[in-house]
């Protein structure tokens, strides 16, 4: 399995940042699951709706934690990221190694046909009609579509994952996932608790999948540029709710700097965005002060032309400076062709 190679300064930044308060959603999610399981404080529909929505948002935050695990930026410990990532991946039906390998290429080849994570929106061989239909399944059945989309990078005959050790690790993760969930479902069936499993775990998880895919669409759909700062929507919150949500999702909403610098500590992303705007005052970055603003900007693409890159009107991308199989320090400088890099002053 590949591990992210950090510079001395990057590792220092990861070790010095304060992450523990951001983990509040983990125990709170468990509290929500317990309250649903025991009908606390009652089985009144109002309480059940509240705890379902509360728990689903906590599970959505778990997906952001899973994302940090894939980068190995959760803390200074790579092993902590790997093993927590495997636990979360098992819970979400997406093997950790598959997600990491897909996400590495998502950063390196943003909005390009080789961006496996944004399939089918990044694939110029898919028809507009297919994407218009597929996106509704992707939105409302994210619980099932995410395992399918991420799994393509392993199961597809054109898979870039050739390393036998990686493929073996993925097979083990799939096997453990099947064994774990087979045991859980079998036990619940034996004790007549399948309805409780659906109510307590799968319904909040289903809703969390909708939130997660809404985030994916908002940050990417309709973006044509291959430049990470211009090919994603960035949200820098100006109100308490957006700032609060940004904090508990490891600042992933500050998406442009994150895409360009996938090894940077998440607490430095806001400052990085400020630096880029200061250094390039004439460049119009797609930055929004609220998530609703970004959603509104994305909405026409969702309805009319769901796509990115070439499917959003871009010319074919130029050849990358190098092919990569790990996260780099600066995607624009190390991977992106100069003709596809729109912001030369940024550093």
What would you say this structure looks like, in words?
The protein has 14 helices and two strands. With 347 residues, it is mostly helical. It has one domain (8-340). Helix 2 packs antiparallel against helix 9 (194-220) and helix 3 (45-71) packs across helix 9 (194-220). The longest helix has 27 residues, at 45-71. It is globular. 40% of the residues are buried. Residues 343-347 have low confidence and may be disordered.
Report Rg.
Answer: 20 Å
Q: What characterizes the major β-sheet?
A: 2 strands, parallel
Average of pLDDT: 95
State which percent range the strand residues make up. under 5%
State the distance separating the first and last CA atoms.
Answer: 30 Å
Q: What best-fitting shape do the alpha-carbon axes yield? A: globular
Share in helix = 55-70%
Keywords:
single chain; 347 residues; mainly alpha; two-stranded parallel sheet; 58% helix; 1% strand; disordered C terminus
